[in-house]
Design goal:
single chain, 345 residues, mainly alpha, 14 helices, LipOase, Lipoxygenase domain-containing protein, oxidoreductase activity, acting on single donors with incorporation of molecular oxygen, incorporation of two atoms of oxygen
Amino acid sequence: LQLPSTGSPPPPLFLPTDPPMVWLLAKCWVRSSDFQLHELQSHLLRGHLMAEVIAVATMRCLPSIHPIFKLIIPHLRYTLEINVRARTGLVSDMGVFDQVVSTGGGGHVELLKRAGGFLTYSSFCPPDDLADRGLLGVKSSFYAQDALRLWEIIFRYVEGIVSLHYKTDVAVKDDPELQTWCREITEIGLQGGQDRGFPVSLQSRDQVCHFVTMCIFTCTGQHSSVHLGQLDWYAWVPNAPCTMRLPPPTTKDATLETVMATLPNFHQASLQMSITWQLGRRQPIMVAVGQHEEEYFSGPEPKAVLKKFREELAALDKEIENRNAKLDMPYEYLRPSLVENSVAI
């Protein structure tokens, strides 16, 4: 639970064979640490703030008649609003993190800054990310299976729209608005993202498809995969304590009293439960991925592409439903019918 330090004895190694309360306390510490990383790095930074970078660049650089604007705008709905709420209520001075989360009081900002160095282009693209993490073909990784399928469906949808508006790679290179949009995301929004593999220009139709698919997948499937599980895993506070009130144990004599004195107090626990419920519950008004009612494209060709997209999403949803029926614990966080069309909550 602690890093070794020079001049101090090595920290104890906690094992399943330790007394039950000792092992329980050690697991609570690991889960509390995971809570911080999940909410700040995986959820806020890689979900909400990345979507905001895409949203702001899209509003600044692409006119509303641009095909990429029309393609991506449904997936940016309410993102700026929910992020303003997060800034003013969750990670602000005396916000929820400062009140009840162990990284509050400045640690959360420092963690976000450090995590920025891990925002690589490949990590936002499941085919590359899963290969880098050795998860391709791992049957027990349902995230890997579903993320890859959803990415491929989104890619085909993007490819269908892009091919209608860009007939050659030269047409891509010669689109100044598209190039400015890409450069704005990488250089301005991501503050030098080219050093982490993000492109500063798009040179071919395939590059456009890959980049736009990354944007849409980030705002839909990737955010939902880290958002939807909050109620399942965090409403039971000992499973992921928002804070720990005593230092990590250095001995193996913990009792139930030690565990209770370490876990969040009543106020902290109740706030964690209420916010988890508000954010993690199934929202009464929710637009599933690809199901937006607004029609941004006119003409039969793009409408046919969208229709095919929705058919493929429905097929994937049914496949996941059939697989989950055979599992003791279903994995539903990437079911298209549950994945939100944008970062809206």
